[in-house]
Specification:
This protein is of the alpha+beta class. It has a domain of 204 residues. The protein is 19% helix and 29% strand. Strands 2, 3, 4, 5, 8 and 9 form a 6-stranded mixed beta sheet that branches. Strand 23 and strand 24 form a beta hairpin. The radius of gyration is 22 Å and the shape is globular.
């Protein structure tokens, strides 16, 4: 590992989204978390600010939070979770003619993390308890190849290893974590590449009897331990709360037409508990007691209590956000052009516009007003359809800004947009949807 100042580590973490469930054997599209990275790279459409005599709508000093908008909910779809997880670490070497560089540190991290209050804060409300770590296993990766490997090859290799007994005797509560050596960085899907767009993913494999075993794949990205622990915590939390994501989903948000929060999963290209927090600028959290970085994850309980929904919450932090007031549940067509999900949104005719109030709220006093922007999430093969104009682009807890959304094309399949709030180096997001029949 090369010694790196934490500020640089934090910047590096933002370069990597962390993959979610994928099942290479059944041809499904991997659930990855790089969608908002692409959005951030797109041209920002903040619109123009209204003349100064159009004031921000704010009254007397407001309580904290001034507004309590309806947060998304991670739904339980009935699939299995790993209630008392046992982590089976498999450290790979050989592809780069060396041993895995961080085995000792990662074993220490795994044991401490699975017994920590931070872990229980993240997974306890989903019925998961403290976990244990099995003895380390080692592999040269013979038969897997190096460099240009994809998730289908990794799936086939890992499943063959499981069936051959290379992972030992596994049980229903096990999570096999495959730590790839630095030479193995491959494609996960058509647009997702390990260590370039995502920092890991999880799925499931089956033994010779057809029994499923949860699997997480963690590459050695940039020879940086903090990037690895951040990705590892993301995949661990998601794997124990959604062990077989493509076969029998458990906690995921959402997957049906009647779920009102479908825009969130489409905006983040994944709706598991880590996905909903990873795009925040403060998603990565250096836990002093662990000595390493973990990723904060979604808490339904915290969201329902109108506190910061991404846990654990760093001491002294203030959560702020800006939520559009959306009057309808609209139907969005997924990227496959077939499946639909319900989402909080608004219907606007082609060529028309509508004014949407945006309510600003925080859990305590902030250092100043925060900036608010809006942008459309790109949809493959289509042109930008929305135009955003604000009456003001800054505000505080208790303020209501006005966002004009103009539709420039017929969009019966719908569009997802993101409202981003930024103050200093911290940012948060809220998601909405627009349809135009």
């Amino acid at each position: 590992m090369h010694p790196t100042p934490r500020s640089i580590i934090a910047s590096a973490l933002l370069l990597l989204a962390t993959g979610c469930g994928t099942s290479a054997s059944n041809g499904t599209t991997p659930r990855a978390d790089a969608a908002v990275d692409a959005v951030e790279a797109a041209v920002e459409d903040t619109g123009s600010e209204a003349p100064a005599d159009v004031g921000v709508d704010s009254g007397p000093a407001a309580p904290f939070p001034a507004f309590t908008p309806v947060n998304p909910v991670v739904n339980d779809f009935g699939g299995p979770t790993l209630i008392a997880p046992r982590i089976v670490p498999v450290f790979m070497s050989g592809g780069d003619a060396g041993t895995y560089p961080f085995e000792a540190q990662l074993r220490t991290f795994l044991g401490a993390y699975l017994a920590s209050p931070e872990w229980l804060t993240q997974v306890g409300e989903y019925g998961v308890h403290a976990g244990t770590v099995a003895p380390s296993l080692h592999s040269t990766g013979a038969g897997l190849g190096t460099s240009a490997i994809d998730s289908a090859q990794i799936h086939a290799w890992a499943q063959a290893q499981l069936r051959a007994g290379a992972f030992g005797t596994t049980s229903a509560g096990d999570l096999v974590v495959l730590f790839l050596d630095g030479s193995r960085q491959g494609a996960v899907g058509p647009t997702q590449t390990l260590c370039h767009t995502i920092g890991g993913y999880h799925e499931s494999i089956t033994d010779a009897t057809g029994r499923g075993v949860a699997l997480a794949v963690i590459p050695d990205c940039y020879d940086n331990l903090e990037i690895i622990t951040n990705a590892l915590s993301h995949e661990m939390v998601e794997a124990v709360t959604d062990a077989f994501p493509n076969r029998f989903p458990a906690f995921y948000q959402p997957g049906t037409m009647d779920a009102p929060d479908g825009a969130w999963a489409m905006a983040y290209d994944g709706g598991e508990v880590a996905d909903l927090c990873e795009q925040r600028s403060d998603a990565s959290y250096l836990v002093t007691s662990l000595g390493h970085t973990i990723q904060r994850t979604w808490s339904n309980m915290a969201a329902a209590a109108n506190t910061d929904p991404c846990v654990p919450v760093p001491p002294g932090s203030v959560y702020f956000n800006s939520a559009p007031v959306l009057p309808e549940i609209v139907q969005l067509t997924g990227p496959d052009g077939v499946h639909t999900v319900g989402a909080r949104g608004i219907t606007i005719a082609n060529g028309a516009s509508a004014m949407v109030p945006v309510q600003l709220f925080s859990t305590g006093p902030t250092s100043g007003p925060w900036q608010v922007t809006a942008r459309e999430v790109p949809r493959a093969g289509t042109a930008t359809a929305l135009r955003f104009t604000w009456n003001h682009t800054t505000g505080r807890n208790g303020d209501t800004l006005q966002l004009s959304i103009a539709v420039r094309a017929r969009i019966p399949e719908g569009r997802v947009f993101i409202v981003r709030s930024t103050l200093g180096g911290q940012s948060t997001t809220w998601v909405g949807a627009v349809v135009s029949p």
